[in-house]
């Protein structure tokens, strides 16, 4: 796996830049976003699609040299614009990551993968049909992550949502389920359209984390810091997770109690997921598990459980 492919799998923030505004690319790179999404779809009117493709091709060297993954969101597969984008991608080898909007059929992704087998794909689930087929989509060749496009999903179903968006909980839940069953990296949540509302961004990102999502689409550089802050475990969570992993390593597979609570495999997995939210998390948890317990200080509150 290349470093940029790995970085895409771990990206917490993916910042959109209109394909017609490539002069903003350098600013986007400086924003601290984990990935940049150059948009050929919603941000570009039909009359300017060719202009946007030419503009993106014009910064191919900068894309290749970028320190973070650069994704291009193409137009809907199966449409004339999507076909034109596919042909353009074949002539633009600098593009290694593609976001596919309104993904509805795994066969469409398979066809794209057959033509361009080196592309890493982010499949956007934005319609009722896409949600219906989400498990097949997640398992399609070339898919690197799933993402939620909840605004288009609402439009497709003619729905309205209240505070917290409980009406579309099944969308996020099923995307999370499909992600897990396909063994993909955590899914990416949709945008917070009110980019000046920091509290709403915080609430939206925390909701995404509760669903097990690992990233969020962003429409403005000012959203990046807030998203990253939310994805960082707080000090209490971090301390707990470190103690759990340490206790599990010392127990060498035996069940233990920590602070009067059982530490078994599900608890250890939860702790590992918290630690995995740290940026550039490189701790080898398997090595820690196998480490000589004599070299590990006993965590406070640790009690080994014995069978009766």
- Percent of sequence in beta strands: 5-15%
Number of domains: 2
The third-level CATH topology of the largest domain is: TIM Barrel
What is the architecture of the largest domain at the second tier of CATH? Alpha-Beta Barrel
Indicate the overall shape: globular
Secondary structure class reads alpha/beta
The topology string of helices and strands comes to HEHEHHEHEHEHHEHHEHEHHEEHHE
CATH class identity of the largest domain: Alpha Beta
* Sheet with most strands: strand arrangement: 6-5-4-3-2-1-8-7
Tally of individual helices: 15
Main beta sheet strand tally, sense and closure:
8 strands, parallel
Proportion of helical residues: 40-55%
CATH H-level name of the largest domain... which superfamily? Phosphoenolpyruvate-binding domains
């Amino acid at each position: 796996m290349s470093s940029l492919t790995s970085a895409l799998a771990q990206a917490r923030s993916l910042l959109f830049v209109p394909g017609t505004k490539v002069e903003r690319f350098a600013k986007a790179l400086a924003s601290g976003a984990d990935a940049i999404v150059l948009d050929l779809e919603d941000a570009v009117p039909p009359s300017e699609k060719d202009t946007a493709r030419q503009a993106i091709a014009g910064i191919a060297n900068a894309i290749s040299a970028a320190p973070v993954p650069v994704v291009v969101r193409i137009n809907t597969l199966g449409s004339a614009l999507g076909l034109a984008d596919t042909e353009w991608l074949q002539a633009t080898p600098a593009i290694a990551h593609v976001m596919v909007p309104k993904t509805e059929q795994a066969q469409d992704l398979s066809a794209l993968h057959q033509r361009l087998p080196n592309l890493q794909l982010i499949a956007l689930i934005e319609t009722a049909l896409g949600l219906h087929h989400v498990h097949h989509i997640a398992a399609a060749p070339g898919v690197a992550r799933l993402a939620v496009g909840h605004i288009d999903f609402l439009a497709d179903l003619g729905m309205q949502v209240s505070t917290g968006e409980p009406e579309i909980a099944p969308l996020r839940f099923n995307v999370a389920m499909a992600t897990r069953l396909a063994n993909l990296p955590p899914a990416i949540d949709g945008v917070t359209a009110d980019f000046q509302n920091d509290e709403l961004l915080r609430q939206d990102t925390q909701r995404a984390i509760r669903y097990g999502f690992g990233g969020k689409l962003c429409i403005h550089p000012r959203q990046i810091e807030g998203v990253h802050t939310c994805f960082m475990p707080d000090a209490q969570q971090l301390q707990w997770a470190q103690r759990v992993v340490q206790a599990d390593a010392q127990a060498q597979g035996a069940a233990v109690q920590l602070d009067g609570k059982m530490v078994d495999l599900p608890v250890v997995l939860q702790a590992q997921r918290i630690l995995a939210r740290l940026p550039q998390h490189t701790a080898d948890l398997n090595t820690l598990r196998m480490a000589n317990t004599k070299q590990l200080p006993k965590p406070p509150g640790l009690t080994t459980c014995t069978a009766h």
